[in-house]
Amino acid sequence: MERTAQLTARPTTYGVAYDPPVTTTSLHARAARVLEANWTGGSTVPSRNLYPHQWSWDSAFIAIGLRHVSPLRAQTELETLFAAQWADGRVPHIVFNPSVPLDAYFPSPDFWRSSTAGRPAGAPRTVQTSGIVQPPVHALAAWLVHRADPALSRTRGFLARMYPRLAAWHRYLLHRRDLGGAGLACVVHPWEQGMDNSPCWDAPLARITPAPARSFRRADLDHGAAEDRPTDLDYGRYVRLAADYRDGGYRDGGYRDGPGGEHDAGGAEFAVEDPAFNALLIASEHALARIAEELGAAGSARRARAERLTEALVTRLWDAEAGMFLCRDLRGGDALVPERGVCGLIPLLLPRLPRDIAAALVRTLRGPHFSLGDRTRLVPSYDLLGEAFDPHRYWRGPAWFNTNWLLERGLRAHGETAAADALRTALLRLADATDFAEYVDPYTGEPCGASGFGWTAALALDLCHRPPAPHERQKLDKSPQNDVSAADTGTFDRSDRGGDRG
Fold this sequence. Notes:
Elements: E1 8-11, E2 16-19, H1 24-38, E3 54-55, H2 56-66, H3 71-82, E4 94-95, H4 109-112, H5 114-117, H6 138-148, H7 150-156, H8 158-176, E5 186-187, H9 190-193, H10 202-206, H11 232-247, E6 254-255, E7 263-264, E8 272-273, H12 275-294, H13 300-317, E9 318-319, E10 324-325, E11 328-329, E12 335-336, H14 355-366, E13 399-400, H15 401-413, H16 417-433, E14 439-440, E15 447-448, H17 454-465, H18 470-473
Antiparallel strand pairs: 1-2, 3-4, 5-8, 6-7, 8-11, 9-10, 11-12, 13-14, 14-15
Helix pairs in contact: 1-17, 2-3, 2-6, 2-17, 3-6, 3-8, 6-7, 6-8, 6-12, 8-12, 12-13, 15-16, 16-17
InterPro entries: 6-hairpin_glycosidase_sf, 6hp_glycosidase-like_sf, Glycoside_hydrolase_63, MGH1-like_GH
Protein name: Mannosylglycerate hydrolase MGH1-like glycoside hydrolase domain-containing protein
Domain Mannosylglycerate hydrolase MGH1-like glycoside hydrolase: 51-456
């Protein structure tokens, strides 16, 4: 493998520039090799060692990158995941590979017992899965994958087959997971939100009695340093929550079927309305509208739903004093959690966010809590000034490539082109320099977690294919054959941007 770029840096107006410059043609080839190495024949593992199964939101991000090298494999990635969808509409966060030994990952299939404990909720009998979910990036991924090769997509009936499954997935979240009754989806476990170990979960988790340490064995510590992973105490709480949910038959609250449609908050011990989870649901509702139109149906109802969800997001989770969105703890007095996580910045992805809120989010990104363009190379996962900040510990400070990819799209959608270009450059250079690390120290760029990480390689591929602005083109050696339509440089098509943003 060729020599990677050194992590020497010099500050620029909006970010950090690195020497020597990265060549995107070389980066493109190396990223494609990572995805090839992680391919199992029907899906892509995040990491061969640490994460040897199929993960839900990983596969969505991986499909977004795969579409540039193999649209067919990108379609297959999503089809394989949704083949494990439950009858109630949920998409499980892990689909287990039966050829992987049980002790290679915990919690393993014998912990989740999906085919038995999940039977009342319609878990599939032919494949083993977990019983919880992850953020709904999938409709956005499906739309982008379709656009990569519309002819292939139409010939295979890709969208026609995916649309009812995606609609059922959103219906599950909008009804069964509206535990607060205000229209937003709730997560019932930190693993569902994807940012597993964030300090935003500390207060809601503190009420959970941890499972005894002797009752489980952590396989993650075989592949990563203990000081970079969740503590045993927190892991015990994760296990307790998952076991209780399993033992309750994976039952959710939300709205009961019937003419009254009465609200049922259920008995969830952990119930949090998260801004990133809901922002991705809204983004995917916009994408579902485009998919419906491609299939000859009307998309107006879904766009209207996305607008209502955006309004609910602002009403329920926006905190003007913090200058960002916060999580709402339904079991903790229905109060906002006063912790600044990157989850509270992800709604910048939404193209119709009110202008004043989008502007405030950009100020917060650049301010002392996240310091984009000043002290940090990528946006950290947690408040730099927070008491719990740790630049290396899982989701308690390190910078992740998927959240920064989302923020790059958000900056671009709201006209912050120079900042978006600089963040794009930083993402590409750090992906190159760290051998596609799982996450990095936000200050130094030091790689953490697994290398050859699936979504890091996939999203680097996607950024290679999206042309930078003219001034940024001078900084990167950009191969013309990697360019795609400028319509793909934002979150949605141009017809979905701007307009009625308050």
